[in-house]
Amino acid sequence: MARFVLKVSGEGLSGDRGFGTDPGRIGELAASLSAARGRGHELAVMVGGGNYFRGADASRWAIPRAEGDNVGILGTIINGILLRGALSQRGISEARLMTAVTITAMAEPYVRLRAERHLDKGRIVILAGGNGQPFVSTDYPAVQRALELGASRLLVAKNGTSGVLTADPRQDSEARLLRSISHDDAVRRGLRVMDPAAFVLAAEHGLPIQVFGVQEIPRLPDICDGADAGTLVAAGAPYRLA
User: Is there a contact between 214 and 159 (Cβ–Cβ < 8 Å)?
Assistant: First the structure.
């Protein structure tokens, strides 16, 4: 048994729709979380909100970036409510939605000790709202929560990639998947599959991160059991191609 924080990108929850939350994808995620929990693992899930709004798009709306990020924060809460509902439909009434911004009519406020207690009791904890602040992607809060909750590893399900690649595939057609790399090397090489600040925070505290494609979500129980998937980013990990 181990404790994991899973970070799922918002875009990955939209499936082929390209916007909003795909019922099939959210159902798939709920089923995989249920199966992993059934194997005894403790799970918290940080959901992104880019399937509804990205702060970087604020300029197109002629609004301040902080307001755009606030809309994205609300998007994460929408995803969190839908995931809690999908888990409930699968008989997991113990799932708890906790938000970094106060919205008590729909969710519990995030309190570290309360979240730990939920996990200790075998409840799935859904983390929404990032860390409640603009100008921060959900990558950094995912590392933050993994450290706060004592996770053995942060699992990151990304959209549009199978892990950490040697270069941006949109700019380099010969980019290849890495099997492993250190946090420091990923930052030094400018591999931006995650926010560099998230890699830096993880490096400071020795938190391993496993990055894989959102299409691997059905394999989540096996990944929690130790199966290979995507790229391992860890202290001292060698630069190794898949």
Answer: yes
